[in-house]
């Protein structure tokens, strides 16, 4: 993909459905009893892989664009698949799926792409094995391909070493069909979409600070889910609006769940001209419209318990920091190393090629502001968020930027380039 400098970005837009919520809607609908309808589903590759895995498990799922109907027969309605389940590039799919498969008394093989093969699965397979699931795979079940035979689980009181919604969700989903109570305690709060959505399906989740508990043998009842716009996708246009001259962008219907809004807090702290309006917190997930205008940003420190609230937004925040006055320091973000790519390395290496003054640290990065970016030959390394960050960087850079493997962007944002082009007109 080739991109050139943009004079301005102006307009009103929507972003596709939230990826985390879309995965969960398909999964919970598949294990619920009765009909679930989902509107506004993200049709990115990751969520399509989730649908494909549950179809292979025998679930009746009809999709018409962003609308999905699932005819659930309860968790016991899932059947041993005759084919390997392939999650593609999606960490959320494999980790949450492992939680569900752990409860089912049959055999499944699960694989993903070469990025998934490098990502740690021990963080979910260790507690799931402790609950009684039989899981094997490379390095004693810590990496794909994985083979799993579930059933006969016992609840656990699990203290997770990482603030990860995928770990929390996998254990809680396994707990749905385990004997007794299952609890997960996290070091910091991670996104709580699973807890919220389980409640919408009629399951009781007990929240005691950082400890979340669930009783075994609870049945889910099908429901209607309306997926809000993905704040992680909106983040690319929020930063674009702030750093590209003469811009003003309004993004409608964005999910503003407080466990996801670290990006808004940091942009405000950096001095961005951002406003949040039309807040509607009447349903399971709160939504709002967000407007951003070209801003004079300043460098900040981003560390501590805000990190899980903006973990996927760090690549685009790093780009914002290259245009801020002063230095930005990102700490406590070692989790970036185990995403689709090592996002500390890919952000630093690719932005350096475009002239940014940025260095990697042990658990984050340091960015010196007000760099003049120039076009270069860069690569997404197959990581959708790196691809989108580079596309926004190219709108600011002088000359031409060639982004290798920009196709990866469809993992979370089909139609990204079309949207960007519309705002340039
Ligand atoms: O649960 C989810 O939907 C997600 C949780 C986060 O990962 P971790 O659970 O590994 O922190 C996030 O980075 C990922 O994009 C989606
Ligand atoms: C880390 C991400 O997703 P996943 O873990 O589902 O692959 C992401 O979307 O940035």
UniProtKB/TrEMBL annotation:
Keywords noted in UniProt: Amino-acid biosynthesis, Aromatic amino acid biosynthesis, Cytoplasm, Transferase
EC primary class: transferase
A single GO BP: aromatic amino acid family biosynthetic process
Catalytic machinery residues: 312
All residue ranges annotated as the Enolpyruvate transferase domain in the record: 5-420
The reaction(s) this protein catalyses: 3-phosphoshikimate + phosphoenolpyruvate = 5-O-(1-carboxyvinyl)-3-phosphoshikimate + phosphate
CDD domains: EPSP_synthase
Principal subcellular localisation of the protein: cytoplasm
Pathway assigned in UniProt: Metabolic intermediate biosynthesis; chorismate biosynthesis; chorismate from D-erythrose 4-phosphate and phosphoenolpyruvate: step 6/7
Subcellular location, record wording: Cytoplasm
Subunit structure: Monomer.
Protein name: 3-phosphoshikimate 1-carboxyvinyltransferase
